[in-house]
Amino acid sequence: METTKKIKGGDVRAASRLIRNLEDRVPEAKTTIKHLFPLTGKAHVIGITGSPGAGKSTLTDGLIDMFRKKGKTVGVLAVDPTSPFTGGAILGDRIRMQRHAEDPGVFVRSLATRGALGGLAKAVGDAIHVMDVLGKDIVIVETVGTGQQEVDIINHSHTVLVVLVPGMGDEIQAIKAGILEIADIFVVNKADREGSSKLSRELMAMLDMAPPSTFQGGWRPPIMKVENAFEPVGFNKALEDISNKIEEHHQHLVDKDIIGSRMRRKAVVELNEAIRASILEPVLQKLLSSGQMEGLIEKVMKKEIDPYTVAEDIAKRYLEGCL
Ligand SMILES: Nc1nc2c(ncn2[C@@H]2O[C@H](COP(=O)(O)OP(=O)(O)O)[C@@H](O)[C@H]2O)c(=O)[nH]1
Ligand SMILES: [Mg+2]
């Protein structure tokens, strides 16, 4: 309860500690989240996804400035699933965002990936809650868009930006990864580079071909171009346009009364993750610690039994309380 009060009062150190505990899966952290949960739901959560090196952090950094200028407070969660072993994965991002360190209206945290089952998505969803209760108007979640887990993280967002760059295979990847389903705004970054017009054209064609039902409430994702992040005037103009679009999208969700369906999406993910954490993980843990897992692996390898039968048997034993 104490931590909840502190975070609600804007205590950054308590928030940092809680986020770290969430990452480390300290059991008390879950209890705190239970207390925080009813206080959540105020922040506008923006997901930014794209390939490594697409310019997500550069964009995030610029957007922080833009939202601050508009008088909003900003929380940033940088997730880097590409470096599971380094712990403090995103040192570069931290250094870059250091210049916001003095600003009490900005709170930046990096989350490293732990390989554990669903651990990443869970920690991110909860860390968003922490920033929300901390009073941040905007929470930006930067994540590398590669797998299902990242798509799940995006489900925590009201507005999703998909960042693409020419010449990185994004052209093909875009269509493959089904980004149309998740993107609310496309950002074509490094648009000074060759291939950028082609990329935009392909995106446009993809949007043209999509059935109208793809566009929730009639929102067709705009394609925003960022010419060159190192050319301040143009970059600021692009950032202003993008931040306006983000606000416009949020307003669209409110006006069309579809913000609820975004929240439903989030509830589905949170529930799935929570059930997984409460049932699947303890079961796997038990099987590992009791040594049963080894025997089962052996049997499956030797084809003495199939994994489905094993799973059904485990589920039955778990439900009967005799695992
Ligand atoms: N040429 C060019 N480089 C950029 C642009 N935006 C970012 N970069 C550079 O691309 C690299 C990766 O950017 P970063 O923001 O860290 O990408 P992230 O991995 O998606 O977060 C960095 O060296 C940036 O300086 C841009 O608009 N034009
Ligand atoms: Mg980054």
Précis, in short:
The protein has 323 residues and is α/β, with parallel strands linked by helices.
Describe the structure.
By secondary structure, the protein is α/β, with parallel strands linked by helices. It has 2 domains: 38-258, 3-Layer(aba) Sandwich (Rossmann fold), CATH 3.40.50.300; 273-319, no CATH class. The chain contains 13 helices and 7 strands. The chain has helices spanning 2-8, 12-23, 27-36, 56-69, 91-97, 119-133, 148-154, 170-176, 196-209, 232-255, 259-289, 292-301, 307-319, and strands spanning 44-50, 74-80, 106-112, 138-144, 159-164, 185-188, 223-225. A 7-stranded parallel sheet has the order 3-2-4-1-5-6-7, with helices on both faces. Strand 6, helix 9 (196-209) and strand 7 (223-225) form a beta-alpha-beta unit. Helix 2 (12-23) crosses helix 3, helix 4 packs across helix 10 and helix 6 packs parallel to helix 7 (148-154). It starts with a helix and ends with a helix. Bound molecules: guanosine-5'-diphosphate and magnesium ion. Residues 50, 52-58, 189-190, 226, 228-229 line the site of guanosine-5'-diphosphate.
Helix and strand arrangement:
Layout: H1 2-8, H2 12-23, H3 27-36, E1 44-50, H4 56-69, E2 74-80, H5 91-97, E3 106-112, H6 119-133, E4 138-144, H7 148-154, E5 159-164, H8 170-176, E6 185-188, H9 196-209, E7 223-225, H10 232-255, H11 259-289, H12 292-301, H13 307-319
Parallel strand pairs: 1-4, 1-5, 2-3, 2-4, 5-6, 6-7
Helix pairs in contact: 2-3, 2-6, 4-10, 6-7, 6-11, 8-9
Bound molecules: guanosine-5'-diphosphate (GDP) and magnesium ion.
